[in-house]
Design goal:
By secondary structure, the chain is an alpha+beta fold. The chain has 3 helices and 3 strands. 18% of the residues are buried.
Length: 114
């Protein structure tokens, strides 16, 4: 992704989750282009858009995170090759509150690594 025009694309965290910053450092059109170029490297081969069920689970995950104290957690961005979950720029994924929210909402997480 970084070599295809998204220089600030993050590595997955220790749980295998890919959380994109929501601070404007990633341009969505560049992300879409890079995603198409790297599709074969994605889990499952990037087999097209997510199912309606996976999209709904991702929205429920975001809603659950908000209800568990991560108040500005956004809904996912749906792209043609999948979707991304963006974390708020001021959120600390390592904080106890964020970790507790992730644990409480794990049944809705459709990302690789759960």
């Amino acid at each position: 992704m970084r070599s295809h025009g998204v220089p600030s694309f993050p590595d997955p965290n220790s749980k295998g989750q890919l959380l994109l910053p929501q601070d404007g450092s990633i341009d969505l059109s560049s992300l879409q282009s890079a995603r198409q170029a790297c599709q074969s490297l994605m889990p499952g081969g990037g087999s097209g858009p997510p199912s309606t069920q996976d999209q709904q689970k991702a929205v429920e995950y975001a809603s659950c995170m908000r209800s568990h104290g991560v108040s500005d957690f956004p809904d996912p961005t749906v792209l043609s090759g999948g979707f991304t979950v963006n974390i708020p720029p001021d959120a600390d994924p390592n904080s106890p509150q964020y970790q507790a929210a992730q644990q409480a909402c794990r049944q809705f997480n459709v990302l690789p690594g759960g």
